[in-house]
Structure formats: structure tokens, C-alpha cells
Amino acid sequence: MYNENHSHLGLGAMDKKYLSDLKLGQEAKILGVIQHSANDAIARRLRDLGFIEGEEVKLITFGPIGKDPLLVQIGFTRFALRASEANRVEVQ
Q1: What is the pTM of this model?
Q2: Phi/psi-derived region of residue 46, left when phi > 0, alpha when psi is between -120 and 50, beta in every other case
Q3: From 26, 27, 31, 33, which residue has the greatest number of CB atoms within 10 Å?
């Protein structure tokens, strides 16, 4: 029997979107930063810079080789991120 309260189950990883997936000029809302360990310095630094849940982020431009680095903007502040760092920021 179908249960509408659990219709979201099974969607998993294929629904996830990351900062590195954005197109030029596209804006998104940050859902969070992926933390690989309890003492993850990169995740902590990204959060310290303002990559926190609920913030709006925009992809301004990216480098010519493999979209690396990415130039993104939160508020009036711009950041250059490696693609590997942008892959750790989940967006909606």
C-alpha cells in the first residue's frame, strides 16, 4: 500500500546538488557543508567564511580548465573555491 507520508523515501543521493553543479549566474540556497571527519578543517573554514545553511550563493564565473577555480558570491563578498571545495557545499 502506498503511504504518502513516506513518498520521499528512496530518492537519496541522486537528488543532491552541489555548488559546483551551478550554471553561470545561477543562485541557490545553501543546505550545508559536508564534513568528512570530526576535525575537518576545510568544512570548518567554509562555515567560518559564511557557507552556512540558508545563505544565498551565486556562481559568478569559473576557471577555463575543469571549472576550477569557481568564483562565488555570498551577499557582497566573493570567494574563489577549488572545485573540490565547492563539491562539499550542498545547495537547493
Answers
A1: 0.79
A2: alpha
A3: 33
